[in-house]
Amino acid sequence: MEPKYKQILKTVKKQIIDGKYPAGSMIPDQNTLARDFKTSRMTVKKALDMLAIEGFIYSKRGAGTFVKKNALAQKDALPVDSYGGLSSQFSKARVKSEPIVFDVTFPTPEIKERLELKQNEPVYEILRLRFVDNEPYALEHTFMPISLVPNLSQEVLFDSIYAYLTKEIHLEIGGAFRKISAEKASKNDLKYLASAETDPILQVEQVVYLQDGRPFEYSISRHPYNGKHAYTIFDRKN
Protein backbone atom coordinates (compact mmCIF):
# COMPACT_ATOMS: atom_id res chain seq x y z
CA MET A 1 0.00 0.00 0.00
CA GLU A 2 1.24 3.48 -0.85
CA PRO A 3 2.52 5.45 2.18
CA LYS A 4 0.05 7.96 3.57
CA TYR A 5 2.31 10.97 2.98
CA LYS A 6 2.47 10.12 -0.74
CA GLN A 7 -1.32 9.92 -0.90
CA ILE A 8 -1.53 13.37 0.69
CA LEU A 9 1.15 14.77 -1.61
CA LYS A 10 -0.63 13.51 -4.75
CA THR A 11 -4.04 14.71 -3.55
CA VAL A 12 -2.91 18.26 -2.67
CA LYS A 13 -0.84 18.50 -5.87
CA LYS A 14 -3.87 17.50 -7.94
CA GLN A 15 -6.00 20.07 -6.10
CA ILE A 16 -3.46 22.76 -7.01
CA ILE A 17 -3.28 21.67 -10.66
CA ASP A 18 -7.09 21.45 -10.89
CA GLY A 19 -7.46 24.99 -9.47
CA LYS A 20 -8.98 24.24 -6.08
CA TYR A 21 -6.03 26.15 -4.61
CA PRO A 22 -5.07 28.83 -7.17
CA ALA A 23 -1.64 30.46 -7.37
CA GLY A 24 -1.04 32.70 -4.38
CA SER A 25 -3.81 31.15 -2.29
CA MET A 26 -3.31 29.61 1.14
CA ILE A 27 -3.82 25.88 1.62
CA PRO A 28 -5.25 24.39 4.85
CA ASP A 29 -2.92 24.20 7.84
CA GLN A 30 -1.26 20.97 8.92
CA ASN A 31 -3.74 20.25 11.73
CA THR A 32 -6.71 20.62 9.36
CA LEU A 33 -5.10 18.37 6.75
CA ALA A 34 -4.24 15.82 9.44
CA ARG A 35 -7.93 15.67 10.44
CA ASP A 36 -9.09 15.47 6.81
CA PHE A 37 -6.71 12.64 5.96
CA LYS A 38 -7.07 10.92 9.36
CA THR A 39 -3.35 10.89 10.00
CA SER A 40 -0.70 12.58 12.11
CA ARG A 41 0.56 16.13 11.74
CA MET A 42 4.09 14.80 11.12
CA THR A 43 2.85 12.75 8.17
CA VAL A 44 1.19 15.86 6.71
CA LYS A 45 4.38 17.86 7.27
CA LYS A 46 6.40 15.26 5.34
CA ALA A 47 3.96 15.49 2.42
CA LEU A 48 4.06 19.30 2.41
CA ASP A 49 7.85 19.34 2.64
CA MET A 50 7.97 17.16 -0.48
CA LEU A 51 5.47 19.41 -2.22
CA ALA A 52 7.68 22.40 -1.41
CA ILE A 53 10.70 20.55 -2.81
CA GLU A 54 8.76 20.00 -6.04
CA GLY A 55 8.13 23.74 -6.27
CA PHE A 56 4.38 23.91 -5.66
CA ILE A 57 4.12 25.61 -2.25
CA TYR A 58 6.06 27.74 0.23
CA SER A 59 5.60 28.62 3.89
CA LYS A 60 5.63 31.99 5.64
CA ARG A 61 6.43 31.84 9.33
CA GLY A 62 3.34 32.83 11.30
CA ALA A 63 1.22 33.28 8.17
CA GLY A 64 0.67 29.85 6.64
CA THR A 65 1.45 27.83 3.53
CA PHE A 66 0.77 29.25 0.09
CA VAL A 67 0.68 28.06 -3.53
CA LYS A 68 3.59 29.47 -5.52
CA LYS A 69 2.69 31.84 -8.35
CA ASN A 70 4.52 29.63 -10.87
CA ALA A 71 3.29 26.34 -9.39
CA LEU A 72 1.63 25.12 -12.60
CA ALA A 73 4.94 25.48 -14.43
CA GLN A 74 6.15 22.57 -12.27
CA LYS A 75 3.21 20.23 -12.91
CA ASP A 76 5.05 18.03 -15.41
CA ALA A 77 8.53 18.35 -13.89
CA LEU A 78 9.85 15.31 -12.04
CA PRO A 79 11.63 15.57 -8.70
CA VAL A 80 15.21 14.45 -9.24
CA ASP A 81 14.95 12.12 -6.23
CA SER A 82 11.83 10.31 -7.46
CA TYR A 83 12.10 6.50 -7.54
CA GLY A 84 8.60 5.41 -8.50
CA GLY A 85 8.93 5.43 -12.27
CA LEU A 86 7.08 7.56 -14.79
CA SER A 87 3.65 6.10 -14.05
CA SER A 88 3.85 7.23 -10.43
CA GLN A 89 4.37 10.86 -11.46
CA PHE A 90 1.54 11.26 -13.96
CA SER A 91 -2.01 9.94 -13.95
CA LYS A 92 -2.30 6.46 -15.44
CA ALA A 93 -4.49 7.77 -18.26
CA ARG A 94 -1.72 10.10 -19.45
CA VAL A 95 1.03 7.46 -19.69
CA LYS A 96 1.34 4.77 -22.35
CA SER A 97 4.21 2.37 -23.05
CA GLU A 98 5.24 0.69 -26.28
CA PRO A 99 7.72 -2.21 -25.88
CA ILE A 100 10.28 -2.33 -28.69
CA VAL A 101 12.76 -4.90 -27.34
CA PHE A 102 12.21 -7.51 -24.62
CA ASP A 103 14.92 -10.12 -24.45
CA VAL A 104 17.12 -12.16 -22.15
CA THR A 105 20.83 -11.67 -22.73
CA PHE A 106 24.24 -11.77 -21.09
CA PRO A 107 25.47 -8.32 -20.02
CA THR A 108 28.40 -6.41 -21.42
CA PRO A 109 31.33 -5.87 -19.03
CA GLU A 110 30.04 -2.34 -18.31
CA ILE A 111 26.53 -3.49 -17.39
CA LYS A 112 27.95 -6.43 -15.41
CA GLU A 113 29.97 -3.94 -13.35
CA ARG A 114 27.07 -1.51 -12.85
CA LEU A 115 24.74 -4.27 -11.66
CA GLU A 116 27.45 -6.10 -9.70
CA LEU A 117 26.65 -9.37 -11.48
CA LYS A 118 28.34 -12.73 -11.29
CA GLN A 119 30.00 -14.27 -14.33
CA ASN A 120 27.45 -15.27 -16.99
CA GLU A 121 24.48 -14.01 -14.96
CA PRO A 122 21.65 -13.21 -17.42
CA VAL A 123 19.66 -9.98 -17.53
CA TYR A 124 16.50 -8.68 -19.12
CA GLU A 125 17.11 -6.16 -21.87
CA ILE A 126 14.15 -3.81 -22.33
CA LEU A 127 13.66 -0.97 -24.77
CA ARG A 128 10.41 0.96 -24.32
CA LEU A 129 8.98 4.10 -25.85
CA ARG A 130 7.03 6.04 -23.24
CA PHE A 131 4.24 8.45 -24.16
CA VAL A 132 2.66 11.20 -22.07
CA ASP A 133 -0.55 12.68 -23.49
CA ASN A 134 0.07 10.62 -26.65
CA GLU A 135 3.38 12.35 -27.40
CA PRO A 136 6.83 10.68 -27.21
CA TYR A 137 8.25 11.42 -23.77
CA ALA A 138 11.18 9.03 -23.30
CA LEU A 139 13.02 6.16 -24.90
CA GLU A 140 14.10 3.88 -22.06
CA HIS A 141 16.82 1.24 -22.41
CA THR A 142 16.83 -0.88 -19.26
CA PHE A 143 18.74 -3.89 -17.92
CA MET A 144 17.63 -5.90 -14.87
CA PRO A 145 19.04 -9.12 -13.34
CA ILE A 146 16.66 -12.03 -13.80
CA SER A 147 17.62 -13.28 -10.34
CA LEU A 148 16.13 -10.16 -8.70
CA VAL A 149 13.18 -9.66 -11.04
CA PRO A 150 11.69 -13.11 -11.72
CA ASN A 151 8.84 -13.84 -14.11
CA LEU A 152 8.83 -10.46 -15.81
CA SER A 153 6.51 -10.70 -18.81
CA GLN A 154 5.93 -8.54 -21.86
CA GLU A 155 2.45 -7.70 -20.56
CA VAL A 156 4.04 -5.85 -17.64
CA LEU A 157 5.97 -3.64 -20.06
CA PHE A 158 2.76 -2.06 -21.31
CA ASP A 159 2.05 -0.84 -17.80
CA SER A 160 4.34 0.14 -14.89
CA ILE A 161 7.38 -2.06 -14.26
CA TYR A 162 7.90 -0.36 -10.90
CA ALA A 163 4.35 -1.19 -9.82
CA TYR A 164 5.12 -4.85 -10.62
CA LEU A 165 8.40 -4.69 -8.69
CA THR A 166 6.91 -3.14 -5.56
CA LYS A 167 3.42 -4.67 -5.48
CA GLU A 168 3.88 -8.10 -7.03
CA ILE A 169 7.36 -9.20 -5.99
CA HIS A 170 7.63 -6.77 -3.06
CA LEU A 171 11.00 -5.17 -3.76
CA GLU A 172 11.83 -2.17 -1.58
CA ILE A 173 13.58 0.58 -3.53
CA GLY A 174 16.32 2.32 -1.61
CA GLY A 175 17.69 4.98 -3.96
CA ALA A 176 19.46 5.72 -7.20
CA PHE A 177 22.59 7.23 -8.65
CA ARG A 178 21.69 9.44 -11.61
CA LYS A 179 23.79 11.16 -14.22
CA ILE A 180 21.93 13.79 -16.27
CA SER A 181 23.54 15.08 -19.45
CA ALA A 182 22.86 16.73 -22.80
CA GLU A 183 23.61 14.52 -25.80
CA LYS A 184 23.38 14.58 -29.57
CA ALA A 185 20.45 12.85 -31.23
CA SER A 186 21.02 9.23 -32.25
CA LYS A 187 19.33 7.15 -34.97
CA ASN A 188 16.87 5.77 -32.43
CA ASP A 189 16.04 9.30 -31.26
CA LEU A 190 15.24 10.31 -34.84
CA LYS A 191 13.13 7.19 -35.33
CA TYR A 192 11.20 6.99 -32.06
CA LEU A 193 11.29 10.46 -30.49
CA ALA A 194 10.69 12.41 -33.72
CA SER A 195 13.87 14.37 -33.02
CA ALA A 196 15.77 16.34 -35.63
CA GLU A 197 19.45 15.64 -36.22
CA THR A 198 20.37 19.00 -34.68
CA ASP A 199 18.14 18.58 -31.60
CA PRO A 200 19.81 18.06 -28.22
CA ILE A 201 18.65 15.10 -26.14
CA LEU A 202 18.26 15.04 -22.36
CA GLN A 203 19.81 11.78 -21.17
CA VAL A 204 19.32 10.27 -17.72
CA GLU A 205 21.64 7.38 -16.89
CA GLN A 206 20.93 5.65 -13.62
CA VAL A 207 21.62 2.71 -11.37
CA VAL A 208 18.75 2.00 -8.96
CA TYR A 209 19.32 0.14 -5.69
CA LEU A 210 17.19 -1.88 -3.30
CA GLN A 211 17.02 -1.04 0.40
CA ASP A 212 19.71 -3.63 1.09
CA GLY A 213 22.08 -1.97 -1.38
CA ARG A 214 21.80 -4.43 -4.28
CA PRO A 215 21.54 -2.75 -7.71
CA PHE A 216 18.53 -4.04 -9.65
CA GLU A 217 18.34 -1.63 -12.59
CA TYR A 218 20.73 0.02 -14.99
CA SER A 219 19.01 2.24 -17.52
CA ILE A 220 19.51 5.06 -19.96
CA SER A 221 16.49 7.26 -20.74
CA ARG A 222 16.52 9.64 -23.70
CA HIS A 223 14.12 12.61 -23.75
CA PRO A 224 13.29 14.76 -26.77
CA TYR A 225 13.92 18.47 -27.05
CA ASN A 226 10.32 19.62 -26.75
CA GLY A 227 10.33 21.64 -23.54
CA LYS A 228 8.19 19.09 -21.71
CA HIS A 229 10.76 17.20 -19.68
CA ALA A 230 12.49 18.69 -16.69
CA TYR A 231 13.82 17.67 -13.29
CA THR A 232 13.42 19.71 -10.15
CA ILE A 233 15.84 19.81 -7.23
CA PHE A 234 15.48 21.59 -3.91
CA ASP A 235 18.80 22.96 -2.68
CA ARG A 236 18.47 23.89 0.97
CA LYS A 237 21.07 26.27 2.42
CA ASN A 238 22.53 24.90 5.65
Query: What is the number of E strands?
Result: 10
Q: Helicity range of the residues?
A: 10-25%
| Element-by-element helix/strand order | HHHEEEEHEEHHEHEEE
Major beta sheet summary: 6 strands, antiparallel
How do the strands line up in the largest sheet? 4-5-6-9-8-7
N-to-C CA distance:
34 Å
Radius of gyration computed on alpha carbons: 19 Å
* Content of β-strand: 25-35%
Mean pLDDT reading = 86
Question: Which characteristics define this entry?
Answer:
238 residues; two-stranded antiparallel sheet; alpha+beta; globular
Give a brief outline of the structure.
With 238 residues, this protein is α+β, with helices and mostly antiparallel strands.
Could you explain how this protein is built, in words?
The chain has 238 residues and is α+β, with helices and mostly antiparallel strands. The chain has seven helices and ten strands. Strand 5 and strand 6 form a beta hairpin. The relative contact order is 0.13. The mean pLDDT is 86.
Provide the fold topology.
Elements (H helix, E strand, L loop, with lengths): L3 H14 L12 H7 L4 H13 L3 E4 L3 E4 L10 E2 L15 E11 L3 H6 L8 E10 L2 E11 L8 H4 L3 H8 L4 E12 L2 H6 L7 E11 L4 E9 L7 E2 L6
Parallel strand pairs: 3-10
Antiparallel strand pairs: 1-2, 4-5, 5-6, 6-9, 7-8, 8-9
Helix pairs in contact: 1-3, 2-3
